[in-house]
Specification:
Blueprint: H1 11-37, H2 42-56, H3 72-92, H4 100-112, H5 135-149, H6 154-165, H7 175-178, H8 182-200, H9 205-220, H10 254-262
Helix pairs in contact: 1-3, 2-4, 3-4, 3-8, 4-6, 4-8, 5-6, 6-8
Length: 266
């Protein structure tokens, strides 16, 4: 599910190696699109370029991504895992394949699902781990604004936002009201599952767990009264500020319950 990451003590070489690996991952994803649909959708290539620019700090509204776990490479890993699931589904279920539309919606959701860790332009406090408890809502707003500006149909924009919403593992997703269309529900389940599988399949997971710990450490270094209020309005957009709440305490069996909910029949 994942390609080996090359490591180096030279930061510049590390960045270069990451960029090369990211490009290779994108090529694998686009190859799946070509194999499944006979073409690479034009807006898909632009989407990858624009989200890469977001993570690199080339959007006027955001700093470069500073967290080292939930970075662009992780988003691409999720895209690749979801794309491979879709390809497997289409081979296993030829009577109800997922059309190109669902592939594009899934890729858009996977690309943006952790963008909420990226700080607003001018925010010099921390790396972005402070947004751990609210990053999904921030990701939803970034995706909604970007896709709207790119003139994606409104129903597709909201479909992407709903898919992102179920990558919030603080609560069990209620899929029925979110996805009344069976194929969209299947694609959403693939993206949410890919978010977990891409991490577990990472051959560098043990080494990188310190990066994930640093993100948790940052958010829990905040006073408890501020942990659920770190969400800012994503500039220059929503006039409404999304509500966020602290995740509830969950039993040890909750992750398994969550996985079962994602894998429930369409």
């Amino acid at each position: 599910m994942h390609m080996a990451r090359k490591t180096s003590h030279n930061p510049a070489r590390q960045r270069s190696a990451a960029q090369v690996e990211n490009l290779q991952t994108v090529e694998l994803i686009l190859a799946i699109a070509r194999d499944e649909y006979g073409e690479i959708p034009p807006r898909l290539g632009g989407l990858f370029d624009d989200v890469a620019a977001l993570y690199a700090g080339n959007w006027p509204s955001h700093e470069a991504c500073a967290v080292t776990y939930h970075n662009f490479s992780h988003s691409l890993d999720v895209c690749l895992a979801a794309a491979r699931m879709l390809s497997g589904w289409n081979k296993a279920e030829p009577a109800q394949p997922l059309a190109q539309k669902y592939f594009q919606l899934g890729m858009a959701a996977a690309l943006f699902h952790d963008a909420g860790y990226i700080k607003d332009k001018g925010d010099q406090a921390g790396a972005g781990g402070k947004f751990t408890l609210v990053h999904v809502r921030r990701s939803m707003e970034i995706a909604r604004e970007y896709l709207g500006q790119k003139q994606w149909p409104k129903e597709e924009v909201e479909a992407v936002v709903r898919i992102i919403s179920i990558t919030d593992y603080a609560s069990l997703p209620d899929l029925a009201p979110l996805f009344t269309e069976p194929r969209l529900k299947i694609m959403a389940q693939m993206v949410a599952t890919a978010d977990l599988i891409a991490q577990m399949a990472d051959i560098d997971y043990v080494r990188r767990i310190d990066d994930l710990f640093a993100e948790f450490k940052e958010v829990y270094s905040l006073p408890s009264s501020r942990r659920s209020t770190s969400l800012k309005t994503v500039r220059p957009w929503p006039k409404r500020e999304p509500r966020c709440t602290k995740p509830s305490r969950r039993s040890r069996t909750a992750p398994l319950t969550f996985m079962r909910s994602l894998s429930s029949p369409p």
